[in-house]
Amino acid sequence: MKTNHQKLIKLLYDNDELIDQIYKNPNSVHSSNIPPTLLEQGIILKLGEAVDINPFYRQFVNTILLKADYSILFGNFDEHSKELVSLKKRYLETNNHGLIVKIKNLIHSLYMSVELQNKQIEALLNNMENQINIELDQLIHEASSLHDKVERYLNSIKKILRDLDDDLASIHMEIEETIDNTNYTLEPYLSKIESYCDRFSDLIRISEEKKVLNQKLFSLRAMILQNNDDYLVDFLIENQDIIAFTLDERIIFVPNEETDLTRITNLLKSVLSIPKPKIRKTITKKVSTTRNIIYIDEEKIINDLEENGCDDLYSFLLKHPEIKKLESSRQDTEAFRIFMLFCINKEYPLLKSMDFNSSNIRRVSWH
């Protein structure tokens, strides 16, 4: 005879396509098409004509599949502590061994909840670190909020583990053994959660730096488009030690004020201004609107640099597989763009020499 659990598994299997459809898009299924058994078992919830997956089921699936769930609830161990204190008191009064078993089961459930929460936090953090289409302000806000929640959660775990050692370990040998095993098993999970806090902090810091950099770039672009040449010339002269990376005529930045700054200003305009579209009076042929967009994975380039280093950053970038994905006519420009982004980031381990390479670009090493 099948157990209730086996019957539930069969019910899920028999309705797998419908459940998956509602999991992906609750609005895609009308309430009249839901089998009564799914409603009776609470797998599908109905509110008027609207239906949705049970939130506990959705959270279970997201955790198993390591999908980010922004609605995850962080465990609160107050109830665990109260229940453990109550069971300890009853055991000391009655010496009933059955209460020892209950205490051990409760400690085990604590371990399982931490393991589950660890997977949820990891999935959420991975998702946030790989976000592309999100406003930086929103990302900073969400990352800051989650950092605080994870930090409080970590402190609450450490507190209940201290309470277990101080208040429960001594009442019975089996409890002491269970607590020792739990502490040992949870140690790597606590280290992971601490590392998640550090990753949240890094994500917040990098996002804030990107926000500041974006503001500076927009300000510079506006200045150029408004023909504010005098300010731009002063800026280039005052910051020549910082931004002097090349002697090549093609490139924007200059090593000293003797260079023709009017020409440099014009080069900057040509690079950063938006060209006016040419309007044709007659169209003689159909033009395909399809184009292949190639994305450069800067993180992969950084990982390769961190692993191998280089003596000449610009030459390294020119030869990198990510740059080689582009058409040959675009490779120089893209390599120099990334070269400049790396050079202005003070956190990268760069050493700028006084020598220039064969492309007349200052030799910069990553060490």
Largest sheet: 2 strands, antiparallel
What structural class is derived from the secondary structure elements? mainly alpha
Query: What is the ordering of alpha helices and beta strands?
Result: HHHEEHHHHHHHHHHHHEE
Helix content: 55-70%
Q: Which percent band covers the strand fraction?
A: 5-15%
Return the average pLDDT rounded to an integer: 76
Uncertain stretches: 243-257, 271-292
Number of strands: 4
Summed up, the domain count is 3
The strand line-up of the biggest sheet is 1-2
Number of helical segments? 15
Explain what the structure shows.
Residues 111-138 form a coiled coil. Keywords: Coiled coil. The chain is mainly alpha-helical. The chain has three domains: 4-53, no CATH class; 78-218; 229-277 and 297-366, no CATH class. The chain contains 15 helices and four strands. The chain has helices at 4-14, 16-24, 36-40, 55-64, 78-94, 97-129, 136-168, 173-225, 229-238, 240-243, 261-272, 298-308, 313-319, 321-324, 328-343, and strands spanning 44-47, 50-53, 350-356, 362-366. Strands 1-2 form a two-stranded antiparallel ribbon. A two-stranded antiparallel sheet has the order 3-4. The longest helix has 53 residues, at 173-225. The protein is extended. The model is unreliable at 243-257 and 271-292 (pLDDT under 50).
Summary, kept brief:
The chain contains 15 helices and 4 strands. The protein has 367 residues and is mostly helical. The chain folds into 3 domains: 4-53, no CATH class; 78-218; 229-277 and 297-366, no CATH class.
Features:
367 residues; two-stranded antiparallel ribbon; 5% strand; coiled coil
